[in-house]
Every structure is written in structure tokens, then in C-alpha cells.
Write a structure and sequence with these properties.
The protein has two domains: 36 residues; 157 residues, Beta-grasp domain (Ubiquitin-like (UB roll), Roll). The protein has a five-stranded mixed β-sheet, sandwiched between helices. The chain is elongated, with a radius of gyration of 33 Å. By secondary structure, it is α+β, with helices and mostly antiparallel strands. Helices cover 37% and strands 11% of the residues. The protein starts with 17 loop residues before the first helix and ends in an 11-residue tail after the last helix.
């Protein structure tokens, strides 16, 4: 038999029982929760569909600090730092040999950390400071590593030399008194087809003011 609110003594004059009020309030709260959840899901879906800002495929303007100077160039997003340095800025001291990150001839530093520039996108450099082989010298005064490479005849064909110098200079920046093993570790990724490694080790140690013990041999 259907409930008659009029004949029910528990129903107030307004016609809504306590049970009916609580049920309605519960449904209202549940509905509000569902609505809020739905709106949140929509907002999250919109954010995901929007995705990050997309650059390219054409040339885009970027600013990078190279050898202490802010340079503004336009490159396609696919352009590597090595290509940008050589082709856009004319800094051809950075050599591209393997172009796949396995020889380290193209080594430069980003905030004093050596990286292979053929595997670094120019657009990803951001605010980090780039130093190339051209930026090591102080005017006409060569960096100690550059001078030591000359004094110790630590180069032959020269293709690997800029990367070797950059790796050794970065080593001395973080460790002013390296051991022979430190030097070997620092240039372990730099490949030299001419086999000048012993001279490279001598040059790096000389630049650090060290002397390589003769007992260690070559």
C-alpha cells in the first residue's frame, strides 16, 4: 500500500518526512560529487589533448649563450647543437666525425659539463652556457690545455683534437690535480685513430702542473 504523507503523523505540515529529506540530501550530495568528478575529468582530458607547446617543423627562433655571448638564431627543431655551431654560427672548431655520439670529437661543454654536441638538439640547450674550443683561449693567450697539446705534440690529423682538449679542460675545471687514471677516464670516450693517447695524457698532466711518473710507462 503506497505511503500517504498526509495521514502519516511523522510527516510535518510541509509534506516531507525526515526519511525523505535525508534521502534527498544524500542524492544531492552524490550528484554534486559525480558532477565535480566529471568536470575534473573533462579538465584533465582537455589538458592532455592540448599537450605541450609544439615547435616546428619549420625554423624556430632560439637564443643560446655561446662562449659568453648571447646568440640568436633560427633552426629547425631537428638541428643538432653541432650543426648549429658550425652552420649557423661559423664555429667550425667543433668537428663532426661519427655524427652518432660514439667518438666525442664534437665535445663541447654545457655549464662546464662535457657533452657530445652531435647528440644534443640546439633547441634543448635552453639557458645552459655553451663553451666550444674557440671559447677556451683568453684572447691571444691559449688555455693551458691548448698550449700543452702544442708543447707535447698531442695531435696528428686534428679531427679528434678539439674534443680531446674540451674533455681535458673540463677535467681540470673539476679536478685541478688529476692523476693519470683520472685523465684516462676523462678521455675514455674520445676516439683517436692516430693513436696519440700517450701524448694527450702527458699534455693534460702538464697543464695541471703534474708530472707523469716514468715508471708508469706509456
Amino acid at each position: 500500500m503506497p505511503h500517504d504523507p498526509v495521514s502519516d503523523p511523522n510527516v510535518p505540515p510541509g509534506g516531507v518526512s525526515r526519511r525523505g529529506f535525508l534521502k534527498g540530501a544524500g542524492l544531492g550530495a552524490a550528484g554534486a560529487a559525480v558532477l565535480e568528478s566529471g568536470l575534473t575529468a573533462i579538465a584533465e582530458a582537455s589538458a592532455i589533448s592540448a599537450g605541450p607547446a609544439v615547435a616546428g617543423p619549420g625554423r624556430v627562433a632560439i637564443s643560446i649563450t655561446v662562449n659568453g655571448k648571447l646568440r640568436k638564431i633560427e633552426v629547425e627543431p631537428r638541428v643538432t647543437l653541432a650543426e648549429a655551431l658550425r652552420d649557423e654560427l661559423g664555429l667550425t672548431g667543433t668537428k663532426v666525425v661519427c655524427d652518432r655520439g660514439s667518438c666525442s670529437a664534437c665535445t663541447v661543454t654545457l655549464d662546464s659539463t662535457p657533452v657530445v654536441s652531435c647528440m644534443t638538439l640546439a633547441i634543448d640547450v635552453g639557458d645552459r652556457a655553451v663553451t666550444t674550443i674557440e671559447g677556451l683561449a683568453n684572447g691571444e693567450i691559449l688555455h693551458p690545455v691548448q698550449q700543452a697539446f702544442i708543447d707535447h705534440d698531442a695531435l696528428q690529423c686534428g679531427f679528434c683534437t678539439p674534443g680531446m682538449v674540451m674533455s681535458c679542460a673540463a677535467l681540470l675545471d673539476r679536478n685541478p690535480a688529476p692523476t693519470l687514471e683520472d685523465v684516462k677516464s676523462a678521455v675514455s670516450g674520445n676516439l683517436c685513430r692516430c693513436g696519440t693517447y700517450p701524448k694527450v695524457f702527458d699534455a693534460a698532466l702538464a697543464a695541471a702542473g703534474s708530472r707523469r711518473p716514468e715508471s708508469q710507462g706509456r
